Amino acid sequence: MNKKKSNEKEEEVTEVLDETENVEEDVETVEAEEVSEADILNAQIAELEKAVADEKEKLLRTAAEYANYRTRSEREKSAIYSSATADIVGEIIPIADNIYRAIDLSKNAPDEFKKGLEMIASQLDKSFGKLNITAFGEVGDKFDPNFHNAVSSVDNDEFESDTITAVYQKGYKVGDKIIRHAMVQISN
User: Fold this and answer.
1) What is the DSSP string of 9-72?
2) Given CA atoms 171, 176, 179, 183 in this order, what sign does their dihedral have?
3) Quick check: helix, strand or coil at residue 172?
4) Is residue 74 in a domain?
5) Quick check: helix, strand or coil at residue 175?
6) Residue 179: domain span
7) Which of 78, 95, 139, 172 is a Cys-bridge partner for 179, taking CB atoms 3.0 to 4.6 Å apart?
8) Rounded distance, CA 12 to CA 171, Å?
C-alpha cells in the first residue's frame, strides 16, 4: 500500500508541477501581451501626437498665408488708390498751372478778377490737400534728380551749387508717387 500511496503522491506532485508550469506559461503570455499592448498604445500615442503636430503646422501656415494676403491686399488697395488719384490729378495739373500763371500775370487786372483767381487757386489747393497731393520744387531747394528735372543751369553767386534758382513748372506727388517732376533751373 505504501507503494500505491507513493504512486498517488507522485502523480499529485506531477499534476501540481504540470499546473505550475501551465501557470508560469500563462503568466509569461499575459506579460508578453501586456508589453505588446503597451507598445501598441505608445505607438498609437506617438502617431496621434505626430498628426496633431502636423495639423498645428497646417493651421500656422494657413494663418501666416492669410496675414500675408491681408497685407498684400491692403498694399494693392493703397497702390490702386494712389495710381487712380495720380491719373486724375495728372489731367488737372495743367489747369492748375494756368490758374497760377493767370494770378502771376494779373498785376494790372481789376481786384475782383484777382480775388476770383485767388479763390479758385485756394479751392484747388484745398482739394489737393484732401487728396494728399503735395507740390514741390521751390526756389532755394536743393536739386534732387528723383524729383526735379533740370532744364537749364546758370552761374549764380547767390545760390550754392545744385540749388534751384528758378521754377518753370511745379512738381506734384501723391504720397511717395511722383505725378510730375518739377521743371527747374539750377545753379552751377
Assistant:
1) HHHHHHHHHHHHHHHHHHHHHHHHHHHHHHHHHHHHHHHHHHHHHHHHHHHHHHHHHHHHHHHH
2) positive
3) strand
4) no
5) coil
6) 132-188
7) 172
8) 117
Instruction: Judge whether 56 lies within some domain.
Output: no
Is the residue at 142 inside a domain? Answer: yes
At 121, list the grid cell.
487757386
Place of cell 494770378: 103
Residue 31 in grid coordinates = 506579460
Q: Is the pTM of this model over 0.85?
A: no
The C-alpha atoms of residue 34 and residue 171 are separated, in whole angstroms, by 85
Kindly report the three-state secondary structure assignment for every residue of 97-166: HHHHHHHHHCCCCCHHHHHHHHHHHHHHHHHHHHCCEEEECCCCCECCCCCEEEEEEECCCCCCCCEEEE
Residue type, 124: L
Structure confidence by residue, pLDDT tens digits, 50-107: 999 999 999 999 999 999 999 999 999 888 887 888 888 889 999 999 999 999 898 8
Count up the domains in the chain and report the number.
Answer: 1
* 166 strand-pairing partners: 185
pLDDT of residue 32: 61
The residue with cell 509569461 is: 28
Cell numbers given for 13: 506532485
